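Ticket #4471: structure export looks truncated?
Reporter: QA, pipeline team
Priority: medium

Steps to reproduce: submit the single chain below to the structure queue and open the exported record.
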Amino acid sequence: MFSLRNFIKLKYLFILVIALAFVLSTLISVYSNYKGNMKLMQEQTLENNRVYALKLAETVDKFIVNSTNTMRYSAAEIAYDFENINKLQDVANRLYLQGDTFSSVLIVDAEGNIMVNAPQSLGEAGKKVPSINGLENYDKHEPFVSDPYISPTGRKVITISMPIYDESVKFKGVLSGTIYLYDSNIFESILGEHPYENGSYVYVVDTRGKIIYHPRKERLGGDASRSEVVVQLLKEKRGALEAVNTFDQPVLAGYSQSEKTRWGIIVQTPYDEALSMVGQQVLSVFKIGLPFIIFSTIVVFLLASHIVRPLEKIAEITENSVKDQEMKKLKEIRAWYYEVYKIQEALISSFSVLHGKVNTLKEETSTDSLTKLLNRHTFEKKIKVLTEKQKDYTLVMLDVDWFKSINDTYGHIAGDEVLQVLASKLKESLQEDDLACRFGGEEFILVFTETTIEDAYERVELLRSNVQQIINPEGEALTFSAGMANYPLHGDELKAIIAKADEALYKAKDNGRNRVEVTNA
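Actual output as written to the record:
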C-alpha cells in the first residue's frame, strides 16, 4: 500500500523547517528594519527642513537688518548736506554698486521730487513720485520694508526706505533702495543652494501666498496660497509637515516666517527621494547579515544530520527486522522526545547568536575596542553632521603626558590600563550631545556642543584636575596636555578645527605639559 511515510524522511523535514524559520526571521527582520528606518528618515527630514527654513528666515532677516543699517549710515551722511547734488549722487552710486544688494537707488526730497538715481541710466532724476513707499508717518524715524509690488517698469520689486532728518529733526526726504525679486543675485545666493543632496529645494511666498522666489523661474509670481504648507505657514509661522504639492506629489516640508519681511520660507523634499536611501540602508544591513545566515544554516544543517543519523539506523532496523521483540521496541519510541526539544532549543539559540553577532558587529564598527569610546571613523561622521548643521562646538585634543615612558618601563598592558582609566574620566565629563573619541594612540578628542570656548576651558580644567588625582604606574600623578579650538570661531571645516586644536596641544607640551591651551588663530 502506498504511503507518504515511506518517502518523507525526518532529515528532510528538519531541513525544510530550518530553511522556513530562517527565511521568515530574515523577512521579518528586514521588514521591521525597513519600517523603522522609514519612520526615522521621515522624522529626520522634517526636522532638518524645519531647522533649515528657520535658519534661512534668520539669514533673510540679517540681510534686511544689514541693508537698513547701511542705508541708515548713508542717510545720516547726507542729512546735513542735502542740497549737494554731487554728494547725493555719490552716495546713491555707492549703495547701488556695493555688494549687488540693490537693483536701483533713489533719493527723494520731502515734496516727493526725485533728486538723484542710480544707475543714472534710469533717468528718474527730476521726476515726481506720488507716494514715497508708505513713509507717511515720518515721526517714527524707522526704515520701511515694503511688500512686493509691481513697479512702473513692470518688475516685481520690494523697496527698503530710510527717512532722512537733519540735526534739527526736520524731515528732508527719503533714501530708497529697490530689489528686483526675480533678478536679484542676493536671493539666489541666500536661498539657491540646499546643503542636503536629496532633491530638496527652497521657495519663498509673500504675505498673500504669491511665490516671490523659486528655483524654477516659471513658478515666479504663481499663487501658492492654497498649498497645504502655505496655509499652515500663515497660521503657525514655523513648523514642519508631510503634505502634497501642487503637482500632487507627497513632500516633507519645513517652513518659517521672516520676522522683518513676513515672507514665508519653505524647504521641501520629495517624499520618494527622501526615503530612497532607506532601501539602500536595509539592503546594506542584509548583505552584512547574509554571511552569518549562511554560516548558521550550514552549522544547523550539520547538527540536524548528526541528530537524525541514529534515527535513520533505527529505521533500517525496523525495515529489516521481523522479530516481535524488535518491533515492540520500535513502537515504544515516541516522536516527541528529548532530542527534538534540544533541536528546537538549538534553533532558538542559533537565531540569538545571529542577532547577537549583528549587534556586536554594529558596536565594534563604531567604538574603540580598548576604551569603548567612539572610534575615529564614527567620530568623523558625527562631527561632520554637526558642522553641516552649523552647530557651534568646541573641540579639545588631549594627549597623555609621558605615555611612552610608561609603555617602555611597565609594558603595554600598564599603558592600556592608563588609557582605560582616562577614558572613564572623559566619559564622566560629557553632557548630552557631547562626543568623546580615541583619535589614535594616547590621543583623545572631546567635543562640547553648543559650548563657548570659555565654558569649555573651565570644563577641561576641571577634568585635568580630577585626572591629576590618579596615580600612574610610575607612582606619579596622571596628567595630560590639551589644545582647544572652536567652530566656527577658529575655522569652518573639521580639518581646520582639528589642526588648530593640535597646534594648541603642542603649545601646551612646549609650555611644560599638564596644561590646557587655546589656539591663538
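Status: closed, not a bug. The export was complete when the record was re-opened. Leaving a note from the reviewer for reference: The longest helix spans residues 10-78.
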